[in-house]
Structures are given as C-alpha cells and as structure tokens.
Amino acid sequence: MQWAKDLGEFVTIKFNGLEIAGKFGADGITSGKFPNGEPYTWKKRRRQ
Hints:
- This protein is an alpha+beta fold.
- The protein is about 10% helix and about 25% strand.
- It has one helix and two strands.
- It has one helix spanning about 1-5; strands at about 10-15, 20-25.
- It has a two-stranded antiparallel sheet with strand order 1-2.
- The longest helix is centred in the first third of the chain and has 6 residues, at about 1-5.
C-alpha cells in the first residue's frame, strides 16, 4: 500500500481474493481549499 501511495499513479492491488484499484494517498487541504483551488466545505455534524 505504501508503494502505491509513493508511486502516485492508478494501481490495482489484489490480495486474499480482493481487488482494490485507484490512486492512493490524499491531497492536503491548505487554507480551506483543495489543491485545485476549490473550497473545502465538509463539516462533521454531531448528533445531539
């Protein structure tokens, strides 16, 4: 999994009869925005 994150490209990992595909790792949020400039507006809502 770490190798896939370091690679930074679309990969397919197969193990124990499962297949996981995608680009692993996460882009960071800086100053409330995604790296592409769009605002990050998600907020956790707690039940009261």
